[in-house]
Amino acid sequence: MSxxxxxxxxxxxxxxxxxIGRAAALEFARQGAAAVIITGRRADRLAEVAAEHDAIxxxxxxVTTEDGAQAVVEALKARGARLDVLVHNAxxxxxxxxxxxxxxxxxxxxxxxxxxxxxxxARLLPLMTSPGGNIVFVSSVAGHKPEPYASMYAVSxxxxxxxxxxxxxxxxGKGIRVNAVAPSAVxxxxxxxxxxxxxxxxxxxxxxxxxxxxxxTGVVEDVAPWITQLAAPSSSWVTGQIxxxxxxxxxxxxxxxxxxxxxxxxxxxxWGS
Length: 273
Hints:
- With 273 residues, the chain is α/β, with parallel strands linked by helices.
- It has one domain (10-247): NAD(P)-binding Rossmann-like Domain (Rossmann fold).
- The protein has eight helices and seven strands.
């Protein structure tokens, strides 16, 4: 895509301070977006991304709340009250084995991964370009494959898949497209936030790489270009699609995770060992 693909457009990327969100925000900026508003809860991380491109606008806000969603609305009103692309990237991953689902974790994931996008979309739709607007979810292969020890994360991503397809049909009459990317294992801070040690994360990703047909796990640069591609005019006849980006992991038989601190333990006593 050319450097002017999104010329003059306003983009919102939630969770834009790190990982896939950061990479996607920079891609939109490099491809000509007038403003890329990135949200997150850590102002310092947002500021670091904003320093990389003049089009990036940092907004410290919790978009699972009414106040946070309204802050995004106000930021857009300051830029002409028009939204062209909304990327739902903010997400939380927690392990919740069947014998210890940790209901606080479960609620946190549903709030961030499902209910937050529902709230923000509702508040921003009146500002979205119609026809021509785009919504892109950053989901996960967990939305359609078993995710042992992380069932509630999988439930939340299944919800994102359902929203993608349902909203695509619901908003088609307004000329607004809705799609999603579903990556497999990509090393981002979402794993660190789960409370796993560096050694545990290394073990997890070593197992993922060994089980992957292409022999490696993903990086954010594998995913970000697909987000911009789905929102680009060249994809104007694509909606309701969930693009799997996984190195061929979907081609393998469903199996337990190659490694987990819970693996082989029915009551969780090995956690952290």
